[in-house]
Specification:
Strand content: 15-25%
Order of helices and strands: HHEHEHHHEEEEEEHHHEEEEEEEH
CATH class of the largest domain: Alpha Beta
Number of helices: 10
Largest sheet: 3 strands, antiparallel
CATH topology of the largest domain: Creatine Amidinohydrolase
CATH superfamily of the largest domain: Creatinase/methionine aminopeptidase superfamily
Strand order of the largest sheet: 3-6-7
Distance between the termini: 48 Å
Shape: elongated
Helix content: 25-40%
Radius of gyration: 24 Å
Mean pLDDT: 96
């Protein structure tokens, strides 16, 4: 641990009862995870009792402070080394998505595309950051679809949400593309709305902006697009105010990213949306999901599910999209698929 991880010191776990009481003795404050491991909590209380008995209680810590919040805050800010690992993790996920696009043709199964994702990730020395979502057609309207048994059909979209984990650091990418290589009119219309929402949200990822600003920007664009296309009645202001847009976007636009896909860290501080700072990393992933049984819209819209997701690092003067190498403009996607 000292040589490989930069720890100040390391001891055999078997010696914990002999070593830790001596480390606690004389300290005014102890940081610990109370309530997470009852067995360790009992050990700690036992050491405290022993110190009181041996020393008359004069050198026993007077204050215990929860450690989790401090560690979570540390994880929010990535070092240069961490950002380097996250770029490498993102590069593997990029290659996996590009490979999956090549094999995702009509007649294949979702699980075959999933297998290609996993082949690339494992072949690059990484592991999946989470179980990939490979959702064809109306399956894309299921937010955390996992079955991956369906056949890919001509005329349908395929939504892939997959990432890599390299040396414990995660990436997370979503792309939605036509199985036959060409978006239909309705698919393209909804796709352009989601893409515009994502670009507007990414513009809000910069120092000094609230975390929630990206979501607000995405929601505004999505609501405007849904109203213009006739999927929602009335105007965008009403759709945002009454939450009716949530019929087609029942999610948030992003989350912290790092050692976990949905990494730790407060989203609100003092009751307000946390302000973004350099070296934070988050996802930006708006979407639209029109349920296949939604009778309030014309049949041509039903069963279309779209999500576009990138990993974005906050920089001193803006942001860096770590996963930009996977095309997301409709024309670029169609050109890539045409070359299969």
């Amino acid at each position: 641990a000292v040589a490989d991880y930069g720890m100040d010191d390391a001891f055999p776990i078997e010696d914990i009862d002999d070593i830790l009481p001596g480390m606690i003795e004389g300290r005014g404050r102890v940081y610990c995870h109370f309530g997470r491991e009852p067995e360790f909590d009992a050990q700690l209380l036992g050491w405290m009792r022993r110190l009181r008995q041996l020393r008359g209680g004069g050198v026993v810590p007077k204050e215990f402070v929860a450690l989790g919040h401090l560690l979570h805050d540390l994880r929010l800010y990535k070092s240069r080394a961490e950002l380097k690992l996250m770029r490498a993790s993102a590069a593997i996920a990029v290659d996996a998505h590009l490979a999956a696009m090549q094999v995702a043709v009509p007649g294949r199964h979702e699980y075959e595309v999933e297998a290609e994702l996993l082949r690339v990730v494992r072949g690059r020395g990484a592991v999946p950051a989470f179980a990939p979502i490979v959702a064809g057609g109306a399956n894309a309207c299921v937010m955390h679809y996992q079955s991956s048994r369906a056949t890919l059909r001509d005329g349908e979209l395929l939504l892939i949400d997959a990432g890599a984990e390299l040396d414990c650091y995660a990436s997370d990418i979503s792309r939605t593309f036509p199985v036959n290589g060409r978006y239909s009119r309705e698919q393209r219309a909804l796709y352009e709305v989601v893409l515009a929402a994502q670009l507007a949200a990414i513009d809000e990822v910069r120092p000094g902006r609230p975390f929630g600003a990206a979501h607000a920007a995405a929601v505004r664009v999505l609501a405007e697009g849904l109203c213009e296309l006739g999927l929602l009645k009335g105007d965008a202001d009403t759709a945002v105010a009454d939450g009716s847009y949530q019929r087609y976007f029942p999610a948030k636009t992003g989350h912290w990213l790092g050692l976990d896909v949905h990494d730790v860290g407060d989203y609100r501080v003092g009751g307000e949306s946390r302000l973004l700072e350099p070296d934070m990393v988050l996802t930006v992933e708006p979407g639209l999901y029109v349920p296949p049984d939604d009778r309030s819209v014309a049949e041509r819209w039903r069963g279309i599910g779209i999500r576009i997701e990138d990993d974005v690092a906050v920089t001193r003067d803006g942001n860096e999209v770590l996963t930009a190498a996977v095309p997301k403009e409709a024309e670029a996607i169609e050109a890539l698929l045409a070359a299969r």
